[in-house]
Amino acid sequence: MAFVVTEPCFNCKYTQCVTVCPCDCFHEGENMLFIDPECCIDCEACSLECPVGAIFHEDAVPEPWQEFIALNAEMAPNCPSITESKVPLAGKHCRSETI
Ligand code: SF4
Ligand code: F3S
Question: Closest-lying ligand to the alpha carbon of 55?
Answer without folding.
Answer: 2
